[in-house]
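Batch 3, record 17
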Amino acid sequence: MNKIVTMTYHTPEKIYLTAAGLEKFKKEHKGLQKIRNSKIIDQEELIRLNKRIEELELIFKSYELIKVPPKNRQGIVGLGATVVVEIDGQVDEFTIVGTLEVEPSKNKISDKSPVGQALLGKKEGELIEIKTSIIHHKCRIIRINYQNE
Amino acid sequence: MNSIKKFKVNLENLSSRERAIFKKLIRAAELIAGLYLKQKNKKYPGANFYPPNVSIEEIKKAARNNPSILNPYTFVERTKSGELKAIPYHIKFKKELKPISKFLEDAADLSEDKNFSLYLRSRAQSLLDGNYEKSEIIWLKTEPFKFGFVIGPIERYLDKLFFTKCAYQSWVGILDEEETEKAKEIKDIILTGRSKILDKSEKVDVSKVGIRVDKTAVFSGLIADCMFTGTNLPNDVRVMKKYGSKLTIFETSLKEKFDQDHLPIFQAVFDKKLQKRYSQKELYEGSLRCIISHELAHSLIRYRDAEKRLENLFPIFDELYAYILGIQRCGLAFLKGVFSQKELEAILIMHICRNFTWWLDLFKNADVYHYAAGAAIASNFFLQEGAIKIRGGISWPNFTKLFICIEELCKILDYYLAIGKYEEAEIFIKNYGSFDIFKYFSPQLKKFIK
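Prediction for the assembled complex:
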């Protein structure tokens, strides 16, 4: 199960983050630094902690903030959009996020997932095809929402 | 067969008090097997709960004047004058139930978890007075306990005539917190999205569906004979709708089933090249996800009148649909990037292996007929649509076609459970339920047939 996506140090890909996601990582970073500076922790824990702090700092260096598109572009699916779709009779709702913010149990799905890839750039009302080598599905975009800043 | 199955579990993390509670629960569970065996009619296996010389029509006729004849918690006997009479379990087995109830009271005295004590006391009382709902509601409403413990007349598979009467069973397990957390994540994914299913299904409040994974120590009664790997209770749709449902995945039972059946069957019936693609861990995860999604799917397909309409055929459709819908939901999770393609393939492969397992289990225990019949329906459907090909075994499943079959079966099974008539359902089973499909594999599977 793709639960947590851990970044590699040499990833050439852009890291897309929502404002909420960025805030979450900043909080985590601050918390970890606090632990590192104030508590006595064993060597193993320190290595783990330093590694995560480095990862987060790398994110801060290379992220690109997902911005809410202008009103006239909000009818198109982009990163950060919450989309209501009908897939083969089933109504579903999810937000498309970058790989670091994926939380399927909270309906945050990756832009790299089959659904994410098929939806990006498509318009409200459009009927699209999600094609993988194992499942083919038709899917209609019912609604697209962006959380305005 | 004494209808008690024990599994090895690690008790190291239990305090001495908890170990004492655990022992009491085990003793209560073991004793319930005796009652289950009394509910069975070994001479006339079809006539469990009912006199051996009775016809379905006679029971229906008697129940018109005396509804307690078809009460889920009564035993039916013939009087000297030849009439049918119903005796509630708690009266018929009063003597045997007293010590069982006492073990529960003792465990409640020992427990420091107030909710668990409350549940145990209520259950102890219900065994003696036949009011099972109250303790069931307490079980559903309270937080997950360290011990997974259920006891009483619960499952209906032993009632071959009406699928109404509940057989005694019990299980005792210890919560596996880590695996429970993983299962909760799957729950949130599988139960999201609203299906456009036919009118009569009950709407499910996802927040009221609980899931736990247990390291089960003991199965007793019906569950020991059927060796379930998961369960979703309560069975009463009315109670489920109001108070939610609780799923238990029996990890120890699943591991044993996987080692003894699922994996060896995979190695016996699938092409050698295909076997190399999947590690044992991937296949085990596939089997685990199969059962988790199956039990979760049960929460989505509760139809208020389906049991009455489909009578003894109901469990065939209900269990099969839960498997198929569970897999369909896993497919949607794959599209959302939750599972990889290989993980989804492992789920499908394990579903096929599970179908064989149910057929093989039928040789040992006729009570799993409903599962085996459902497995035959799915397998025949897959074969007819070219999703599996038989050439000295399954050479290579066509995963794309398998998924088309899954979608198609979802629609068909939904129809029968939502509005289908008994006669239509009977014809469907006649068309697709032949066990002959499994016989093609007899040469490879003969070592499993006991």
